[in-house]
């Protein structure tokens, strides 16, 4: 089972702001090139590795009709499509304040996955949301493959957005950036689910 190194997550400025994480953010340039090679070298700096603990919480049911058809297939291509859809849904949820679909796409045992919709809901209770989706996925590529678990690099641009309230007043603005997330998805009986992500 893959272990995840606790380090700052490359979640981009907007997601970092709502979750309170340290962002590894770019300056709006083209997203970095990703590779399907699994022979990447990790940093030698000391850190604590953890595994996701089992959870007794049942994951919400995913309506297959809500997914792109290719994201429902138990293949590496299906895993890539699912990971891409997950991050696009993060952006859509930031713009709408509705996290119901987003919550169903990830394991409830994934700490970072649950932090994102929780923070979006906190904003939504104040009537705040972004004026458009900030997430623009440009590239997906398999980083590590497997029958039931695949790590997908998802790279793209984070667009500059404005947070507006119910009166359509601007309460915050963000800067553009780039991101690459190593997103781990696992097959859960009939569907993929995101079970972790970290800086790629």
Short summary of the structure?
The protein has four helices and nine strands; from the N terminus they run E-H-E-H-H-H-E-E-E-E-E-E-E. It has 200 residues and is of the alpha+beta class. It has a single domain, classed as Nuclear Transport Factor 2, Chain: A (Roll), CATH 3.10.450.
Folded structure, characterized:
α2 packs parallel to α4 (111-125). The chain has four helices and nine strands, in the order βαβαααβββββββ. It has a single domain, classed as Nuclear Transport Factor 2, Chain: A (Roll). It has helices spanning 12-19, 76-96, 100-104, 111-125, and strands at residues 4-5, 49-50, 129-130, 135-144, 149-158, 162-164, 170-173, 177-188, 191-199. The two termini are 18 Å apart. A hairpin with a 5-residue loop joins β6 (162-164) and β7 (170-173). The strands form three sheets. It has a four-stranded antiparallel β-sheet. The protein has a three-stranded antiparallel β-sheet with strand order 3-6-7. The chain is globular and about 50 Å long. It is an alpha+beta fold and 200 residues long.
Q: What would the keywords be for this entry?
A:
single chain; 200 residues; alpha+beta; Nuclear Transport Factor 2, Chain: A; 4-stranded antiparallel sheet; 3-stranded antiparallel sheet; 4 helices; 27% strand; disordered N terminus
């Amino acid at each position: 089972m893959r272990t995840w190194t606790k380090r700052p997550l490359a979640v981009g400025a907007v997601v970092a702001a709502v979750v309170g994480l340290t962002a590894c953010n770019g300056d709006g340039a083209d997203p970095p090139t990703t590779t399907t090679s699994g022979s990447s070298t990790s940093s030698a700096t000391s850190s604590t590795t953890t595994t996701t603990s089992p959870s007794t919480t049942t994951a919400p049911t995913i309506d297959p009709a809500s997914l792109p058809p290719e994201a429902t297939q138990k293949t590496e291509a299906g895993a890539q499509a699912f990971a891409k859809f997950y991050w696009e849904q993060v952006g859509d949820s930031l713009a709408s304040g509705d996290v119901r679909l987003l919550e169903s796409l990830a394991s409830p045992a994934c700490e970072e996955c649950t932090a994102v919709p929780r923070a979006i809901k906190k904003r939504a209770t104040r009537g705040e949301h972004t004026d458009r989706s900030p997430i623009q996925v440009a590239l997906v590529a398999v980083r590590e493959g497997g029958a039931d678990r695949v790590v997908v690099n998802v790279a793209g641009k984070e667009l500059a957005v404005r947070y507006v309230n119910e009166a359509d007043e601007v309460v915050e603005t963000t800067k553009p950036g780039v991101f690459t997330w190593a997103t781990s998805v696992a097959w859960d009986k009939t569907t993929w689910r995101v079970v972790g992500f970290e800086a790629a």
